[in-house]
Write the structure tokens for this entry.
Amino acid sequence: MFPFKKILCPTDFSDPSLCGLKMGNEMAERFGSEIIVVNVHKPIPHLPTPRIQASEATFDVTEYEKHVVEDARDNLGQVSDAIFSDGIVPKLVVRIGKPADEILALAAEEKVDAIFIATHGRTGIANVIFGSVAQRVVRRAACPVLTIRACE
């Protein structure tokens, strides 16, 4: 089990999640772990629209989602270049869906040994209203989960 051979590091590009990537980098340096970095975007709701001519449509949700994925891939590449040491080439994944569900699905597909996930440390009503992706992942993961608050 330890050292972890394959680690999943979800990121939303927040400071705590970047700390998770840094910890993944350290594991990869010390133990040769394989790193998978994932960014998950919530789906954009497809609302029913009145029948209009195709030429009158002003917003294409599918096309917009493609741009979101492309931008996220670019951002993942930039962040990875800045954080990961030379010789460590993480697998970069972008998904659209419910973040906790997509993280857990990817962890199962890739058969990861651990998940390094950031938590924003919300408590009280903020946690009740917004929930916690990290909390859902910890509760449902089939592998160890390391939660990370922020770098010191």
About this structure: The CA atoms of residues 17 and 118 lie 5 Å apart. The helical segments are 15-31, 61-83, 99-110, 124-130, 133-140. Strands lie at 6-10, 34-41, 91-96, 114-118, 145-148.
